[in-house]
Amino acid sequence: MPTSEPSLAGKRVLITGGSGGVGRAVAGRMIGEGARVLIADRDELRLRQVVEELRAERGPGEVEAITVDLSGAAAADRMFDRVDGWLEGLDILVACAGVGAEPLMELAETEWRAVIETNLVSYVASTQRAVERFRAAENKEGMVILVGSISVHIKAVGESVYNAAKGGVASFAETLRKELMRESIRVTLIEPGAIATGMQPYSAEERARFMARQEMLPPEEVAEAILFAATRPRGVDVVTLRIEPLVQKIV
């Protein structure tokens, strides 16, 4: 008989990229399950709006926010100061901060470095600090969920810098899981296809048409995949979960 899904009630969750399409959707689902959620992102006005929306939904959980630009070296420490202060510990990290990128030769060095800092380095920095908290906890447990991309498999023209970062996330996740599995710390890699979020170079109306044609994923579907991973019983680890729209662009 399958075991029941563990409850997220009272779980302490940090979501980076928390005001984006996927981050906001994950936060809403987890608050609805009773989790205490800290969302982090760089757009203060958008963060305030998202917090107001999430509180208006009146889920049983709680939400707070911190404004940080995770391409900066000191940002992770400031973010985890808030983790220690408001959450008073951590059970789950969901790293989904991300920015898109043009082809390498269309980017200044400062631009491609910012893409890699946000899409890869911030994942490593956040994970290291999360694991420190897991190890310090009484039960010594925790979960890291890293949102990568199927772009590393497709390798589409124009995505060289983006793929360099997301490929790093994939290798990091798969290797780190082996390093931590004996400590009851789980690591999951989520690899979505095209998602209808603001990262796409299309208007909201165009994104809605892509979803209607099953060419882009609704952010809520990616959030459901993350929630599935986060609610597996102890001893069950979703190693890699790839989710695509039915008609995924592959060139």
From TrEMBL:
GO terms for molecular function: oxidoreductase activity. Keywords: Oxidoreductase. The keyword Oxidoreductase applies. InterPro entries: KR_dom (IPR057326), NAD(P)-bd_dom_sf (IPR036291), Sc_DH/Rdtase_CS (IPR020904), SDR_fam (IPR002347). Coiled coil: none annotated. Residues 11-193 form the Ketoreductase domain. GO terms for cellular component: membrane. Pfam families: adh_short. Belongs to the short-chain dehydrogenases/reductases (SDR) family. This is SDR family oxidoreductase. The lineage of its organism: Bacteria, Pseudomonadati, Pseudomonadota, Alphaproteobacteria, Sphingomonadales.
